[in-house]
Amino acid sequence: MNRAFSRKKDKTWMHTPEALSKHYIPYNAKFLGSTEVEQPKGTEVVRDAVRKLKFARHIKKSEGQKIPKVELQISIYGVKILEPKSKEVQHNCQLHRISFCADDKTDKRIFTFICKDSESNKHLCYVFDSEKCAEEITLTIGQAFDLAYRKFLESGGKDVETRKQIAGMQKRIQDLETENMELKNKVQDLENRLRITQVSSSPASNMTVKSPSTDIFDMVPFSPISQQSPTPARNGTQLPPVPSRSTEIKRDLFGAEPFDPFNCGAGDFPPDIQSKLDEMQEGFKMGLTLEGTVFCLDPLDSRC
Fold this sequence. Notes:
- This protein is α+β, with helices and mostly antiparallel strands.
- 34% of the residues lie in helices and 19% in strands.
- It contains five helices and nine strands.
- Strand 3 and strand 4 form a beta hairpin.
């Protein structure tokens, strides 16, 4: 048995792996509600939550309010809580976020699980009344968690680093394509400027050139102190000096570092992919604990 899952030795699975992998197992139950708890695991934690929600249920009953009915759909993708008629999803609890699941030994109808909320990251305890199916539902959630963890190891868990590197390379390629487009635009702009310069400097016959004074032999007088002037450009401006070749090994002609697919740091891949993979690893590592306990009596020893 893997470390990510703990259950009682006398319990057996209720369904075939195919039923939870390719489909889902539906259950009908009454939803007593959910409440925030301080810890992700613990019999005493869920016992207090059940007492709190049971008390709230009695108050609602005395006011004439009915406990809402829901449909639970359990699969390797999570536990969905739906409105039975409209099938509207009210809550979607992913299995790697569920850390504790328990049913009541004395009251076969009550079961509960603790799930970490995806938005607030708070631990919420969900409590249900299930018409004497509490233990079966608890085991079904445990089996789904076990299958999901194995599937994660087979398809994703072993290749997490590889997937991160692929994601990083994809982002790097996207950045390089953007950079390439910017460089193309710069080259096009330089070519346009060169054409304008060539047009403005020709034809040469339109320019009036003043001839230097000559002597009686029609020769330009020699001046020993005359200095050689630099050759002007075709448009009359001084040509810029030829840039020296960069001696930096790690930069290209445009000053950018060359792409190295074997040197992608942690920040090179999209943070949403990294956080999702890390979240699943952390959730499955924490594991799911199943308990059959007594919610309405004095606290018993917990194996959590």
